[in-house]
Amino acid sequence: MKNEKKKFDDSENQKQQDLKFNKSDATNQFMTTDQGLKINDDNNSLKVGERGPSLLEDFILREKITHFDHERIPERIVHARGSAAHGYFQVYESMEKYTKAGFLQDPSIKTPVFTRFSTVAGFRGSTDLARDIRGFSVKFYTEQGNYDLVGNNVPVFFIQDAIKFPDLIHAVKPEPNNEMPQAASAHDTFWDFISLMPETMHTIMWVMSDRAIPRSLRMMEGFGVHTFRFINKKNESHFVKFHWKPKLGTHAVLWDEAQKISGKNSDFHRQDLWESIENGHFPEWELGVQIIPDADEHKFDFDLLDPTKLVPEELVPVTLIGKMVLNRNPDNFFAETEQVAFHPGHIVPGIDFTNDPLLQGRLFSYTDTQLSRLGSPNFHEIPINKTIAPMHNNQRDGHMRQEINVGRVSYHPNSLGGGCPFQAKIEEGGFSSFNERIDAQKVRDRSESFSDHFSQATLFFKSQTQTEKNHIINALRFELGKLETLAIQNRMLGLLSQIDADLANKVAEGLGLKVPKSPEKPMNHGIGANADKQKYEPKKVTNHMKPSDALSMLKNKTLSKTIATRQVAVICSEGVDRAAINAMKAALDKEGASMKIVAPHLGTIKANDGSEIKVDQSFLIAASVLFDAVYIPGGKNIGFLSSKPEVIEFINEAYKHCKVIGADASEIFSETNVKVQFDIKDVTDGIVLKANEADKAFVKSFIEAMGQHRFWNREKAL
Ligand code: HDE
To answer: Which of 79, 119, 269, 334 to mutate to test the pocket of ligand 1 (most atoms within 8 A of CB)?
Structure first.
């Protein structure tokens, strides 16, 4: 048995090898049928005469059409829209004090990973920029078997018990009578459910914040959400919360932008991930853990098993223990991104579950869903799902079985097969569940420690900057403003008033309503028929939680000053100053950012020195929402551009979205909304102007301003 263990010196290659085995490359190959017969004509079916009917005999036509007819598999019920990439994970130093998980021991080992990001509610073809939680699933192909960390970009979840998941998803999906709206929560059924389930309030705050409209999948945090366990060699347990921290910082777009991007490029996130990997800008995250000794389980005002709560980083700091780099795009979307099967129950020795009732339900759901999606219990044999660890058991047969099990023994215990495959002792890597002591009655109930639905919602709201608060208020005005049922709006205002009075009042103002004086008690709906209503009365437990900077994207800007991979639109026309473009390009290249030349037409334009400049996008194709900043170089083009409606719109939109705008001449702004402050040293409003041709500081100021990303002082107070 021992000699079975493969050596994985470079395990990243190991998975690559594994996938290669199944890869097919048709370069220099004949076209064949699925049976290997060379095809002579793939353009005409077999007919009785050139104008006659097709023949049933045409096995080539039938094979091709039959395969085509069955190309689709059911999309995921949730998280249908996703994009993924390969890469590796590397731990910084051994975590053996806390866990015996093999991939968390040796800093020299690169564990291959496949990571899929997704939206939750939309169908497979829906827009990337929907207001939604993003899935963040990582499959680690470890030497001890696959470990899946199936998390989200928000650290908490809507509901506390898995039994409510189908209700939540039915409510958020397009309404069943008319299948509207697509990939949107702004409709009655969603808010009807939410308004009757106060436990959703904390997650609602996150979903109404800009976290739900990321600038890029590469600029999102990730969270394991549930509390898990680390188990070390001595069988000691620590609670652990998982975090992914993006190297590029956590960034979002504005809601107005998100909606426009959805129209301009509904693959915005997918394309951004794909292109940055193709261009060698490999996205990177650090894995962080919050570790809590078992003895501290009851030390907090909330229950560690309650997935609607987070552990504030100020109470338990996040320790960064390793990094994940995504460095290879999939070869085939269907084979990899679509067929990958994640499961929170794919764990390795050293990691274990807690009794979080949401997690417990998930442990059932994910295998079950693969059976209907991928169609067979053999989904683990699909190359992307295959473990790189040796795999032997007595499971047999089933649809599309690939493995050819030899011998006559498919049971355990056996003597005819020499007792193989053997069970592994714990010292040999055998998995054994943490032997937590449980002594309780069987009940269909919820712990009273789960009944504080508002403290952390308030904590989240209070921890935001005023800009972020305004965005939350406006998101709620938008979502609730789309409702047709007044009672739902009123119930929501009642719930919001328990989070923060100012929040509720401002949302009410936007809706043209008043916050109800005595809010309806929604918990009367969201509990069992025989439940003790008193016990379920939502409680607001504490005010002691100080605002947490880690919860605000704008306060928590670790490492986010970088402008690497950011895109600048350079607006040009004939006669543009070539030297100015070159200087900007050199500076952007140095920072890892890039520019696109946007001009009235495709092809080329002539610069002021007579040279030709290749145009990347015409005004018809480009839009400011697809860029992070705008630059209008000088030269003869300024006069022409300053009166062009497309250019005025471009600049106005970038201005509205608080982006950096740089220009060589202030005339370009004459017909726009941009208010130019003539103190050129002052770029607090994100408008960077060149003083004169010799202004060497201009490019530097532009780059520095880009590092601030947005200039929120341009936004009007609510
Ligand atoms: Fe999932 N979830 N989920 N979920 N989930 C699925 O599995 C489910 C939950 C998450 O990129 C499904 O293969 C239940 C929390 C991600 O392929 C399904 C409950 C979190 C993905 C399913 C939850 C998640 C899924 C659909 C409540 C964050 C995409 C297709 C008990 C920690 C994985 C599939 C990918 C996918 C069930 C709640 C994250 C139906 C029953 C909480 C990132 O099995």
So the answer is: 79
- Taking the centre of ligand 1 as the mean of its atom positions, its distance from the CA of residue 483, in whole angstroms, is 27
Distance CA 480, CA 235 (A): 50
Structure tokens that stand for 465 in this block:
């900057």
Q: The domain at 50-182+218-385 falls in which architecture?
A: Beta Barrel (2.40)
Q: How far apart are alpha carbons 312 and 374 in whole angstroms?
A: 39
Q: Closest ligand 1 atom to the C-alpha of 162?
A: 31
From ligand 1's centre to the CA of 324, what distance in Å?
Answer: 21
Residue 527 tokens, joined: 């509990």
Q: Is any ligand 1 atom within 6 A of the Cβ of residue 157?
A: yes
- Alpha carbon of 494 to ligand 1 centroid (Å): 30
Question: How far apart, in whole angstroms, are the C-alpha atoms of residue 340 and residue 147?
Answer: 13
| 79 a catalytic residue | yes
Residues of the chain with CATH 2.40.180.10: 50-182+218-385
The tokens describing 14, both together, are 């190991």
**In sequence order, which ranges of 447-596 are alpha helices (DSSP H)?**
455-462, 466-481, 486-499, 501-511, 533-536, 578-591
Full 3-state SS string of 301-312? CCCCCCCCCCCC
**Beta bridge partners of residue 328, listed in sequence order:** 86
Residue from 73, 75, 76, 159 whose mutation best tests the ligand 1 pocket (most atoms within 8 A of CB): 76
- Residues of the chain within CATH 3.40.50.880 domain(s) are 567-714
Mean per-residue pLDDT, 464-475: 97
Tell me whether residue 152 is one of the annotated catalytic residues: yes
Cα distance between residue 207 and residue 457, in whole Å: 11
* Count of Cβ atoms closer than 10 Å to residue 546 Cβ: 12
Query: How many Cβ atoms sit within 10 Å of the Cβ of residue 289?
Result: 24
3-state class (DSSP) for residue 298: coil
* pLDDT tens per residue, range 253-307: 999 999 999 999 999 999 999 999 999 999 999 999 999 999 999 999 999 999 9
Q: Is 634 in the pocket of ligand 1 (CB under 6 A)?
A: no
CA of 343 from ligand 1 middle (Å) equals 8
Nearest protein Cα to ligand 1, atom 44: 366
Tell whether pTM > 0.90.
yes
**Strand, coil or helix: 161:** coil
Tokens at residue 310, please?
A: 């987070």
CATH class name, domain 567-714? alpha beta
